[in-house]
Amino acid sequence: MNVKWYYRQSEVPDSVYQHLVQDRNNENDSGRELVITDPIVKSRELFISDYVDTYHAAALRGKCNIAHFSDIFAAREFKARMDTFFYILGYNPETRRLNSTQGEIRVGPSHQVSYMICKAVLSSAKFQLDVKSSHKLGQVADKVFWL
């Protein structure tokens, strides 16, 4: 049976976790309340990793449920129950870093795409009557070329 690795807060280095707490406190100053102020909910947060181990089913002690939330504000929906946890971020033990599990959208001139200038050149072509196709005599096709 394949088992995904998750890390508890106590298994993440204290310096790494303190940066997360500081970031969340900064977000909390924006006027939105954080759900992590509740100590019971706080103890239920895990950090997912990319590691997977394979175990025989007899070696497992039990099963738990883990919910994924996109951000700390979405985690307000979490209800602390027995054997129920949640995660928002991932943890890589090799680099000792927390990372987002979602794709990121970066804003700013250095992260924006440069578009090519498109000039449309129209060419008209009349089709001959073709029994095998549905083209009718006089139908016009437009083609666009990149310059």
From TrEMBL:
One Pfam family here: BAH
Occurrences of domain BAH (ranges): 1-102
* InterPro entries per the UniProt record, alphabetical: BAH_dom, BAH_sf
- Could you state a single Gene Ontology molecular function term? chromatin binding
Output the superkingdom of the source species.
Eukaryota
**What protein am I looking at?**
Arginine-glutamic acid dipeptide repeats protein-like isoform X1
Q: Which organism is it from?
A: Acipenser oxyrinchus oxyrinchus
Source taxonomy: Eukaryota, Metazoa, Chordata, Craniata, Vertebrata
